[in-house]
Amino acid sequence: MRDPNLKSARRIQIVSLRMVREQASILFPQRKISKPADAAELFRQFIGDCDREVFCIMTLDTKNQPTALHQVSCGTLNASLVHPRETYKLAILSNAASIIGCHNHPSGDPTPSPEDVELTERIRDAGSLLGIELLDHIVLGEGSFISLKERGFM
User: Fold this and answer.
1) What is the DSSP string of 28-48?
2) Per-residue model confidence (pLDDT) at position 49
3) Can you list the residues of the chain whose pLDDT is less than 50?
4) Which is nearest to 69 in space by CA: 49, 48, 42, 50?
5) How far is CA 69 from the centre of its chain?
6) Using CA atoms, how far apart are residues 146 and 42, in angstroms rounded to an integer?
7) pLDDT tens, 122-147?
8) How many CB atoms lie within 10 A of CB 35?
9) What pLDDT sits at residue 10?
10) Are 56 and 70 in contact, with CB atoms under 8 Å apart?
11) What is the pTM of this model?
């Protein structure tokens, strides 16, 4: 004889999965990152109006669809400690094919610092070893953003 609670538990799992999918589609309806502006929009919703530097990653599947957003580090007014180890730990646990990194500049000026460029190179190189490509690193400012890939820093 089958346990009637088993069928109920299965129904709850399906409903939970459906809610996660619907929630993701509300956050980003087109479900594909095709340009830096798409990623910047999603990161801006995730980070919000934070008064400290926050470094986050978006994990993507093979079709460039976001699978997860993770906060890797929360720093101070003008710095954030980020290491490739923590960055790729989250990417590996999310089964990412690739990632996009992003951090905010609370000053409002999205111009990348030399440290931002160095961090991008370190994360890119670590990803090459792991087979998880860093597609871009985006710096958010007040109402604007800069893509390090578009600026030729990657």
Assistant:
1) -TT----SHHHHHHHHHHHH-
2) 84
3) 8-26
4) 42
5) 4
6) 14
7) 999 999 999 999 999 999 999 899 99
8) 10
9) 47
10) yes
11) 0.78
